[in-house]
Design a protein that fits this description.
With 264 residues, the chain is mainly beta. The protein has a domain of 100 residues: Trypsin-like serine proteases (Thrombin, subunit H, Beta Barrel). Helix content is 10%, strand content 33%. A hairpin with a 6-residue loop joins strand 14 and strand 15.
Length: 264
């Protein structure tokens, strides 16, 4: 069975990060899955203009105002801002009582952009990794930027053009430091069978794969209805070593919950 991991967010302390990592490793030995997290944080192209890290892929050179670096205790994830005070990320990146910090709109995760703190985390009530791996974080202030447009069911189709973004490590075995600059990969939505998650995820295949640190990052697709790029997924699971696929929580299946919590 393939070894898989989710892209994991960071708990508020190193001790808690190591404890959770140990528990997840035990679960992985039984299930063949484990969360893709980046525990300790080491001291664009626009979707329509992708050349060719995430593992593989390339470095983003054009502004991505809706993508956020997500720091939560001793771990790191990627996120998207969807409204002035609301950030969307993976459920395994943050839980109740966490107070993550975000840096919005900078390609450099260490400087620039706008910073804000999370004051409340809303993890999906049905969260059971890898199922329903999605969370909303309410910020302590308004962030004025361009917000990530969210997909509806009609925006998603198998085989459509897609791109993924994140600050994940650059080695196939998930080793090494998290890069400073935002990375991306281009490809397509392949199917919904890359994981055993219930409900089914969106599966991405392309010239790169999500790895540790990419958790919570966006999967963007070119809508067959409008021709516009929208966010269809949230990075949740990927194989170790990195391969030719990554699994993303389907935003369209969570639109009612997102609207109920964040009003978006």
């Amino acid at each position: 069975m393939r070894e898989e991991q989710v892209m994991r967010g960071r708990p508020p302390t190193r001790g808690r990060a190591l404890l959770i990592a140990a528990l997840l490793a035990l679960a992985a030995s039984a299930l063949g899955f484990a969360p893709t997290a980046s525990a300790e944080v080491p001291p664009s192209h626009a979707p329509g203009d992708i050349s060719t890290k995430i593992f593989g892929g390339g470095t983003v050179t054009e502004e991505q105002p809706s993508i956020a670096a997500f720091y939560n205790g001793g771990a790191f994830c990627t996120a998207s801002i969807i409204a002035p005070r609301w950030v969307l990320t993976a459920g395994h990146c943050a839980g109740e009582g966490d107070t993550p910090e975000v840096r919005v709109g900078s390609l450099d995760r260490t400087q620039g952009g706008t910073t804000a703190k999370g004051v409340q985390v809303f993890r999906h009530p049905g969260y059971n990794w890898p199922g329903n791996d999605i969370a909303l974080v309410q910020l302590d202030r308004d962030v004025d930027t361009t917000y990530s447009p969210l997909a509806s069911a009609g925006d998603i189709a198998q085989g459509q053009e897609a791109a993924i973004y994140g600050w994940g490590v650059e080695n196939a075995d998930w080793s090494g430091d998290i890069p400073v600059n935002l990375k991306y990969a281009s490809g397509t939505v392949t199917n919904t069978d890359c994981t055993s998650a219930n409900p089914r995820m969106l599966c991405f295949g392309g010239n790169g794969s999500a790895v540790a640190g990419d958790s919570g990052g966006p999967l963007r697709v070119k809508s067959p209805q409008t021709g516009q790029w929208v966010q269809a997924g949230v990075s949740a699971v990927s194989p170790i070593p990195a391969g030719d696929w990554s699994g993303y929580t389907d935003i369209a299946k969570n639109r009612d919950w997102i609207k109920e919590v964040a009003g978006v």
